[in-house]
Design goal:
429 residues, mainly alpha, Growth Hormone, Chain: A, two-stranded antiparallel ribbon, 16 helices, 78% helix
Length: 429
């Protein structure tokens, strides 16, 4: 029998998932644009920032997720994390060339200092964001659902990145992203919204009934990485390994996607073109969680990967607006539907009452390994990309379709491996 979830739960899930994803979209997609446009960052700079953020997210989730289990608290970490997350985003308002030029000596490149400051502050922002979202919110979502409704809840959670992209794309249309003043206003708005949501969480989030962990804190931290834990939860770690391949494929192209649309394809109105694709993909993703509940992981994951691969093929071969739209739609459907079914599968296999300490293991497969490997592959395939010279004499690279070729290869490997892991899973007691 399906367990009914309360309106309060759905309100908290929707609000915190959406606003959290809006903040992540700004970090994962537009912070790259920020340092590219404001500080002339290279592909290597962007790769380094993504990698540093991935490491920060992973360490934070491992230690803070375990701490939330140790204390038996989720609400404190979610609301407090969102408050500090908002403040850290507001700090980006002061990362500007005019401010940096006044502080550093004339012999030092203000642009280089700017890139370094962005990377450092990104790690600080990631610490608070991962505390609130990756560690506490994801554990709360697992604690608050069960096998009868987890797919539906995960479908809403997984569609939020696309809704967030749509909100950010639409909101950013009003700004000139070549203007430092626009970025200051963007960071001020996003930071204030995240901060306000943290305050609302004190009243909206219902603390799940979880028992504080009695074992020592350090053992709680390493619990998910112990050989005995892996052996006891073999199916979970198989799902996590598959999730690594899925996310590596996504991270190859995602840091460069907006730059590809705008710089390589010359789509200055890419927001208007992509908005319908995002809306349609969001609807598909919201429904796809229910498909997981009814049909299971094997069927739902196969379709998600099929959409992803066909989307890659279209983006690889074609540059015409209509076909780029179709390719982007299928890619987004595959990406978010895949996130929904993999996320639901991992939550189903997570031991009851241990969701906090397993968030660190999950973040390894979702963020750390893909965040290190994916952008490195992307940087490698763009090593010989065409370069343009700006009016000020600075050079900027032009992302090309090779990022989709590399992403396609990894997704194809996942498709080949998936049937064997499903057979192996059935043999696991």
């Amino acid at each position: 029998m399906k367990t009914k979830l309360s309106p309060r739960f759905w309100a908290a899930l929707t609000l915190f998932s959406l606003i959290g994803q809006i903040a992540w979209v700004v970090e994962n997609m537009y912070l790259n644009v920020f340092i590219y446009k404001m500080f002339h960052a290279s592909a290597a700079d962007i790769s380094a920032m993504v990698a540093a953020s991935a490491v920060a997210a992973t360490l934070t989730t491992v230690f803070l997720g375990a701490l939330s289990d140790k204390l038996g608290k989720r609400k404190l970490f979610i609301s407090g994390g969102y408050l500090l997350w908002g403040i850290s985003i507001l700090a980006f308002c002061f990362v500007r060339l005019d401010v940096i030029s006044v502080i550093v000596p004339a012999t030092v490149s203000a642009a280089s200092v700017g890139v370094s400051l962005v990377i450092i502050l990104d790690c600080v922002m990631t610490f608070f964001g991962s505390t609130a979202n990756d560690a506490a919110f994801n554990a709360w979502l697992t604690d608050s659902t069960d096998a009868s409704n987890r797919g539906a809840a995960e479908g809403i959670n997984a569609m939020m990145p696309l809704v967030a992209i749509l909100a950010v794309f639409g909101g950013f249309m009003a700004f000139d992203l070549n203007s430092p003043k626009s970025w200051t206003l963007i960071f001020a708005i996003i930071g204030a919204v995240v901060l306000i949501v943290g305050i609302l969480g004190l009243f909206l989030i219902k603390e799940p009934e979880i028992t504080p962990v009695k074992e020592p804190y350090f053992r709680t931290v390493v619990h998910g990485f112990l050989p005995s834990t892996v052996k006891k939860n073999a199916s979970l770690y198989v799902a996590l390994a598959l999730f690594i391949l899925f996310n590596i494929s996504i991270q190859i192209f995602m840091p460069y996607l907006i730059l590809y649309y705008e710089v390589s394809l010359g789509m200055k109105d890419y927001v208007l073109i992509m908005a319908p694709a995002i809306i349609l993909a969001s609807v598909v993703t919201a429904l796809w969680g229910k498909v997981y509940d009814k049909k299971g992981f094997s069927v739902s994951s196969w379709w998600a990967l099929s959409w992803l691969i066909v989307g890659y093929l279209l983006l690889w071969f074609f540059r015409a607006t209509a076909l780029v739209f179709v390719g982007s739609l299928l890619m987004m459907c595959g990406y978010l539907s895949g996130m929904a079914v993999f996320g639901a599968r991992i939550r189903d296999l997570t031991p009851v009452g241990e969701s906090g300490r397993f968030q660190g293991v999950r973040i390894f497969s979702q963020v750390l390994v893909p965040g290190l490997v994916g952008p490195y592959i992307g940087k490698t395939v763009l090593a010989n990309a065409e370069v343009i010279v700006g009016n000020d004499g600075t050079e900027s690279f032009i992302p090309n379709q090779n990022i989709f070729v590399a992403a396609l290869i990894v997704a194809a490997i996942l498709c080949l491996v998936l049937p064997f892991t499903m057979k192996k899973k059935k043999q696991t007691p």
